[in-house]
Amino acid sequence: MLDLRRLRYFVTVAEELHFGRAAERLRIAQPPLTRHIAALETELGIRLFERSTRSVQLTPQGALFLERARTVLQAVGEAENSARKMAQGVAGRIAIGYTSSIPMSEAFAEIVRRAGRALPDVDLTFREVATASQQRQIADGTLDIGFGWSARDAREDGLKTLVVTREPLVAAVPSGSAHAARPALDFTALRDETFLVFPPGYGSAINTALDTLCAQAGITPRLGPTASQVATLVSLVAAERGVAIVPAFTRTLQRPGVTYVPLQGGHGLEQTLSWVEPFGAACVERFVALAREVAKDSA
């Protein structure tokens, strides 16, 4: 394998076409430089320079090798620069999981916005994954970060969790229903309604929140059609197929025939960011630090 140091020595001599000036530029003595070039020629089996007492010139083989040597050194330089950036946490790749409703959250948008500005050389990849599945995939290394809702104690999997913000719950109801005219609803007022939910086994924290609300109110919920997208649930409400309990920011989904009514009692969900430590990459640690800043600003 070629010695990269000798490649650098060769390129410098080729650029100066003078061993003395090249040695000065490289800050080494001329005799060792001459020996290194001779050793490189022996290793390659070709003459790189034509030397005389008055001049140094590249041979045709040397001129061709110079092009290749520069390409190699440039690639090595880029690799070294990339490695330094990754060590500093300003380059790399972060696999991010999110639940279907999270992208509507301003906190999510703000964290991703800050990451884009602070870490422009970090490749952020996004994958829609339910909260429970996110935590499994973070634990096994498939995901680096997960945006979800508090549904259970993440520490069971050795995960770290940051509460980014707390989002109130609202009822999405058909605009033609009596509920739509009320400024706020006690959850018990919905006892006779059909609830639109995420599929069983999807791992939705919103389903878990609905189960908790029903248990507290002594209601056995009647379940209607299911959907894996919150936007689809809202569309089903517009079609008068039932009501849905959703985060308050879902109100940005304005659908004709749907009214969002706050729930009395301060019911809400904690929007969380999950990861595993020790960090697999410095850029993940930087991302979490940015999320902490947003959570602090939101408090």
Write the layout of secondary structure elements.
Layout: H1 4-16, H2 19-26, H3 30-44, E1 49-51, E2 56-58, H4 60-88, E3 91-98, H5 106-118, E4 121-128, H6 131-139, E5 145-149, E6 159-174, E7 194-197, H7 205-217, E8 222-226, H8 230-238, E9 244-247, E10 258-262, E11 268-276, H9 282-298
Parallel strand pairs: 3-4, 3-5, 7-8
Antiparallel strand pairs: 1-2, 5-11, 6-9, 6-10, 6-11
Helix pairs in contact: 1-2, 1-3, 1-4, 5-9
Protein name: LysR family transcriptional regulator
Organism: Paraburkholderia acidisoli
Family: Belongs to the LysR transcriptional regulatory family.
Q: Please give the oligomerization state of what you see.
A: single chain
CATH superfamily of the largest domain: Periplasmic binding protein-like II
Instruction: Report how far apart the termini are.
Output: 57 Å
Number of helices: 9
Structural class determined from secondary elements: alpha/beta
Taken from the alpha-carbon principal axes, the silhouette is rod-shaped
* E-strand count: 11
Helix content: 40-55%
